[in-house]
Amino acid sequence: MTQMNYTDKTTRVAIIANGKYQSKRVASNLFSIFKDDPDFYLSKKNPDVVITIGGDGMLLSAFHMYEKELDRVRFVGIHTGHLGFYTDYRDFEIDKLIDNLRNDQGESESYPILKVIITQDDGRVIQARALNEATVKRIEKTMVADVTINGVKFETFRGDGILVSTPTGSTAYNKSLGGAILHPTIEALQLTEISSLNNRVFRTVGSSVIIPQKDKIELVPQRTGIYTISIDNKTYNLKNVVKVEYFLDDQKIHFVSTPSHTSFWERVRDAFIGEIKS
User: Fold this and answer.
1) Region for 107 from its dihedrals, namely left if φ exceeds 0, alpha if ψ lies in -120 to 50, beta otherwise
2) Reported confidence tier of residue 4, pLDDT bands at 50, 70, 90
3) Phi, psi dihedrals of residue 65, rounded to the nearest 5°
4) Which of 54, 106, 164, 225 could bridge 18 with an S-S bond, Cβ 3.0-4.6 Å?
5) What is the tens place of the pLDDT at every residue in 59-105?
6) How many C-alpha atoms does 260 have within 13 Å on its Cβ side?
7) pLDDT of residue 2 exceeding 60
8) How many Cβ atoms from other residues are within 10 Å of residue 140's Cβ?
9) Whether residue 48 lies in the annotated active site
10) Rounded-to-integer distance, Cα 251 and Cα 70, Å
């Protein structure tokens, strides 16, 4: 395949699709259109715009592929299955997407992401970013951990685990645990307990807590053992975790702002309520 030469005015586009037939078909159509269009240059290296085809899981994977380039990359999603929270276009709206990209002025919709730092007792440190959420669970027995917020000991948690979500992640696992839905432009994190143990002896707050932008959450396990720490779609099984820290990252994820960028409240309504009868 031969493509037009890249110029300073050309938009570098990466196309990433899942393995489903419909997604591959859409990707093939996009490749055919872009390869002969002088306004675009196909390249997975240093793209300006990343187009994901599939669903929210595909966009989540693309986010982690380019998480070191968030300062310059913008994302746009095409969904080929059920309605997604991160996807603006249906598979039959390719022409609309291309027209919007051709008229694009570089504007973005930007949302906060989560930074996670895991410290182990041997001194090893793991740093990661999450677009949706991070969870900590103890495999063998009940997890016991001190929860500190902005330097203040908040509670000693006993239960299955702790989840910390971003505003965009608030509609995912967090919501299934009874957490609140946050608009993605809110600069905050949400701490939600997973099956906390509450009785006459042990008490926790028992509800999700909204943490403002400047505050840091610190989780300190009180028992040795193996902990399962999931950060979006990646899972670590780690022995003897000393602490896990959570805070808003300096970077954000940027989505292409186009006339087709769906209202967050429309997404919530369509996903959880459905069509409203007048």
Assistant:
1) beta
2) very low
3) -65, -35
4) 54
5) 999 999 999 999 999 999 999 976 678 888 988 999 999 999 998 88
6) 20
7) no
8) 10
9) no
10) 7
